[in-house]
């Protein structure tokens, strides 16, 4: 039970790295001695110190000369298996061995090929007691983007749309019509700060002319991705304003200027979601939120290439329109936001 409590704290710490560590995992670490937390840390930024390094550092800074003796009798809780490889930093497993920790409690094993059990092996070989799988489901959920990218060689894919109470999600004519309330917009901007990329199709770029940034929430803007086979979206539209890095998948050219990265693809009418997903994997994109339109959403749904769908259902009723997509998933969460109902579906496959 106590192990679970400390692991819960690791998860809280880990989540503070959200939006800043991709394509690395979110990792938190707590060091406990004699029933007391003596140090904490998390992976704060991609390319910088791992969680264990920051946690150990917090102990040495706080306890000075006493730190060595305290650590030698302590338990380290880490939400992910300590790494065993020399990456941008030396192996965390070696660090824990060097400080002679007594016990290490782990949430998830790390499937990354440089680690993949080797971290646990190093600790055990040094005589450290290792327990793994504590709050495993919660840890897996927090790092679902990281695990999906490593295991499936594609980003974690989130679909998002809004529908009227009677199932319409866009008018039939080409005008933009707002369905959900103002709070929905704020939440969507928060969501955008949490993902690496945001993706839309040609029609949405033309009809809605969205800015695709996170201006209503503090945090980073995601990479913008537009799918525009024949480059039909006018250059004057917001997506071409160069204010955030933007990728345009098209069939005509590969070139870069003004923060706009054109990437040429062949035969975009075939296996488009699969091709895009693999390209994004190669670009180190760990997660993408797809915000429309109907055509793009349907292609990813038909290809069963999605992990999560976030749907706003407003109370208004329309007499006609384009029908919202149907998905085969289970409801993981549901809440209301002003007059909108928000439903989070998870795909059964994942
Ligand atoms: C840990 N603790 O806090 C993190 C780990 O390029 P590097 O050196 O930053 O290594 C990245 C890999 O290390 C990453 O793919 C994952 O396997 C592991 N991340 N490991 O022990 C941490 N962030
Ligand atoms: Zn590490």
UniProtKB/TrEMBL annotation:
<dbReference type="InterPro" id="IPR016193">
    <property type="entry name" value="Cytidine_deaminase-like"/>
</dbReference>
<feature type="binding site">
    <location>
        <position position="204"/>
    </location>
    <ligand>
        <name>NADP(+)</name>
    </ligand>
</feature>
<dbReference type="InterPro" id="IPR002125">
    <property type="entry name" value="CMP_dCMP_dom"/>
</dbReference>
<feature type="binding site">
    <location>
        <position position="92"/>
    </location>
    <ligand>
        <name>Zn(2+)</name>
    </ligand>
</feature>
<dbReference type="Pfam" id="PF01872">
    <property type="entry name" value="RibD_C"/>
</dbReference>
<comment type="function">
    <text>Converts 2,5-diamino-6-(ribosylamino)-4(3h)-pyrimidinone 5'-phosphate into 5-amino-6-(ribosylamino)-2,4(1h,3h)-pyrimidinedione 5'-phosphate.</text>
</comment>
<comment type="pathway">
    <text>Cofactor biosynthesis; riboflavin biosynthesis; 5-amino-6-(D-ribitylamino)uracil from GTP: step 3/4.</text>
</comment>
<dbReference type="InterPro" id="IPR002734">
    <property type="entry name" value="RibDG_C"/>
</dbReference>
<feature type="binding site">
    <location>
        <position position="178"/>
    </location>
    <ligand>
        <name>NADP(+)</name>
    </ligand>
</feature>
<keyword id="KW-0521">NADP</keyword>
<comment type="similarity">
    <text>In the C-terminal section; belongs to the HTP reductase family.</text>
</comment>
<keyword id="KW-0560">Oxidoreductase</keyword>
<dbReference type="GO" id="GO:0008703">
    <property type="term" value="F:5-amino-6-(5-phosphoribosylamino)uracil reductase activity"/>
</dbReference>
<dbReference type="GO" id="GO:0009231">
    <property type="term" value="P:riboflavin biosynthetic process"/>
</dbReference>
<keyword id="KW-0479">Metal-binding</keyword>
<feature type="binding site">
    <location>
        <position position="212"/>
    </location>
    <ligand>
        <name>substrate</name>
    </ligand>
</feature>
<keyword id="KW-0378">Hydrolase</keyword>
<feature type="binding site">
    <location>
        <position position="291"/>
    </location>
    <ligand>
        <name>substrate</name>
    </ligand>
</feature>
<feature type="binding site">
    <location>
        <position position="162"/>
    </location>
    <ligand>
        <name>NADP(+)</name>
    </ligand>
</feature>
<protein>
    <recommendedName>
        <fullName>Riboflavin biosynthesis protein RibD</fullName>
        <ecNumber>3.5.4.26</ecNumber>
        <ecNumber>1.1.1.193</ecNumber>
    </recommendedName>
</protein>
<dbReference type="InterPro" id="IPR050765">
    <property type="entry name" value="Riboflavin_Biosynth_HTPR"/>
</dbReference>
<feature type="domain" description="CMP/dCMP-type deaminase">
    <location>
        <begin position="1"/>
        <end position="131"/>
    </location>
</feature>
<keyword id="KW-0686">Riboflavin biosynthesis</keyword>
<feature type="active site" description="Proton donor">
    <location>
        <position position="52"/>
    </location>
</feature>
<dbReference type="InterPro" id="IPR024072">
    <property type="entry name" value="DHFR-like_dom_sf"/>
</dbReference>
<feature type="binding site">
    <location>
        <position position="208"/>
    </location>
    <ligand>
        <name>NADP(+)</name>
    </ligand>
</feature>
<comment type="pathway">
    <text>Cofactor biosynthesis; riboflavin biosynthesis; 5-amino-6-(D-ribitylamino)uracil from GTP: step 2/4.</text>
</comment>
<dbReference type="InterPro" id="IPR004794">
    <property type="entry name" value="Eubact_RibD"/>
</dbReference>
<feature type="binding site">
    <location>
        <position position="215"/>
    </location>
    <ligand>
        <name>substrate</name>
    </ligand>
</feature>
<comment type="similarity">
    <text>In the N-terminal section; belongs to the cytidine and deoxycytidylate deaminase family.</text>
</comment>
<feature type="binding site">
    <location>
        <position position="83"/>
    </location>
    <ligand>
        <name>Zn(2+)</name>
    </ligand>
</feature>
<feature type="binding site">
    <location>
        <position position="192"/>
    </location>
    <ligand>
        <name>substrate</name>
    </ligand>
</feature>
<dbReference type="GO" id="GO:0008835">
    <property type="term" value="F:diaminohydroxyphosphoribosylaminopyrimidine deaminase activity"/>
</dbReference>
<feature type="binding site">
    <location>
        <position position="50"/>
    </location>
    <ligand>
        <name>Zn(2+)</name>
    </ligand>
</feature>
<dbReference type="GO" id="GO:0008270">
    <property type="term" value="F:zinc ion binding"/>
</dbReference>
<dbReference type="InterPro" id="IPR016192">
    <property type="entry name" value="APOBEC/CMP_deaminase_Zn-bd"/>
</dbReference>
<dbReference type="Pfam" id="PF00383">
    <property type="entry name" value="dCMP_cyt_deam_1"/>
</dbReference>
<keyword id="KW-0511">Multifunctional enzyme</keyword>
<keyword id="KW-0862">Zinc</keyword>
């Amino acid at each position: 039970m106590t192990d679970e409590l400390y692991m819960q704290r690791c998860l809280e710490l880990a989540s503070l790295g959200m939006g800043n560590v991709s394509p690395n995992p979110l990792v938190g670490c707590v060091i406990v001695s004699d029933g007391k937390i003596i140090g904490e840390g998390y992976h704060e930024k991609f390319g910088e110190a791992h969680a264990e390094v920051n946690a150990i550092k917090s102990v040495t800074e706080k306890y000075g000369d006493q730190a060595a003796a305290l650590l030698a009798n302590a338990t380290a809780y880490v939400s992910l298996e300590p790494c065993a490889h020399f990456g941008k930093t030396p192996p965390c497993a070696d660090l824990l061995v060097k400080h002679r920790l007594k016990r290490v409690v782990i949430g998830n094993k790390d499937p990354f090929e440089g680690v993949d059990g080797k971290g646990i092996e190093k600790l055990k070989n040094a005589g450290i007691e290792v327990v793994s799988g504590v709050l495993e489901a919660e840890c897996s959920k927090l790092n679902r983007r990281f695990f999906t990218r490593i295991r499936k060689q594609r980003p974690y894919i989130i679909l998002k749309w809004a529908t009227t109470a009677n199932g319409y999600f866009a008018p039939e004519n080409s005008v933009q019509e707002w369905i959900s309330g103002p709070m929905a917009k704020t939440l969507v901007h928060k969501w955008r700060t949490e993902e690496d990329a945001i993706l839309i199709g040609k029609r949405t770029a033309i009809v809605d002319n969205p800015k695709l940034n996170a201006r209503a929430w503090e945090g980073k803007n995601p990479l913008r991705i537009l799918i525009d086979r024949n480059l039909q979206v006018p250059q004057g539209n917001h997506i071409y304003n160069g204010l955030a890095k933007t990728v345009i998948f098209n069939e005509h050219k590969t070139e870069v200027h003004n923060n706009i990265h054109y990437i040429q693809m062949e035969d975009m009418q075939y296996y488009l979601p699969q091709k895009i997903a693999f390209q994004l994997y190669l670009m180190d994109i760990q997660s993408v939120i797809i915000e429309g339109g109907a055509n793009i959403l349907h292609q990813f749904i038909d290809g069963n290439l999605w992990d999560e769908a976030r749907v706003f259902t407003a109370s208004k009723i329309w007499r006609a329109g384009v029908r919202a997509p149907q998905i085969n998933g289970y409801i993981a969460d549901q809440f209301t936001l002003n007059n909108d109902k928000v439903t989070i579906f998870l795909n059964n496959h994942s």
